[in-house]
Amino acid sequence: MPDSPGLFVVTVVPALVVGVLAVAEGLWRARKHGAALRSDLSGLLRPILPWPGVRSASAAVGLALLLLIADQLVFSSASGQGGERLAALLRTAAAVACAGALLVHVGRAWSPRLAYLAVGLLTLAACTLATAFVPDQPRGGPRPHPVTLNALVVALGLMTWFWSWLAQVWQQQLDAGSPEGQEPAWTTAGRLVPINRRASLVTGVAGLVVAGLMAAWPLLPVVSGDDDSWGRMLAGVAAHLLLLLALIGSARWSRRAAFHLVGLLVLLSSILFVAVRLHAVIERFNPVHHAAMVEFLQASPAAFSTETAAALGR
């Protein structure tokens, strides 16, 4: 799905409307509280009902935005179009605005569905922001696909660590740091702890999928072009290492074996990444394609034998 002005309107405007409604409702609630403090203190005990339809509309917009941004992110990564930095920044702002509005609604009245939507939008926002910093080709050509995948692996690795770290911080704020399931959490942050841990695992699995695709990219039959420069090898290994460290930290915090399994698969993906590209580098020195190398390899044994015989003759 290519970017267009109409698609920007469909993506950005609803997110801004949802954010404005959340802020307006918050100001209205603050005004109601202020009026109760000045005139009738008993009004503070009466719950303030949310605006009708706002939460449902926010959930619908959040789900639609999640699908639209994911579709645009996949399309941009698959096509490698250049000059999309502004579009990526606008999509990031839309996702953050909508996620912020959903979290505001979650803070006013708990809803796990809205919380999951907000966490998914923030993760997609990080991925979209990472693609905004992928450099364009010098002559305005398409962006290299593996470079975009590398940026996505970095973003997913950071978000894997972030969600686990945030869950660990909020877990420590519960009464006596009670483990999950022993005492019910009564704050919004406490209720978000298991959601953040699940989001961390899902994000790590998504990072594994993207890393595996990046590792096997040169082996795909539809791919043309090399991805075996030393800079690309270092960047790919660094992205794998970042994701692996994020999974190790998440496993230590959550004590879940699933993180260890995903980390092992990421390690295998990094080995595949290096092996595929080293194989391509070695093929460059094939004697069939390098006559100079052939002459050198043929002359070296003869020269070595002559020097050895002369040395033994002395």
Structure description:
- It contains nine helices and no strands.
Annotate the secondary structure layout.
Layout lengths: L4 H34 L15 H26 L5 H24 L3 H21 L12 H28 L15 H28 L14 H25 L2 H27 L7 H23 L1
Helix pairs in contact: 1-2, 1-3, 2-3, 2-4, 3-4, 4-5, 4-6, 5-6, 5-7, 6-7, 6-8, 7-8
Give the key terms.
0% strand, flat, 314 residues, mainly alpha
N to C succession of SSEs = HHHHHHHHH
Strand content: under 5%
Give me the secondary-structure category: mainly alpha
Mind describing the biggest β-sheet? Answer: none
Report helical residue fraction. Answer: over 70%
Q: Summary?
A:
The chain is mostly helical and 314 residues long. It contains 9 helices and no strands.
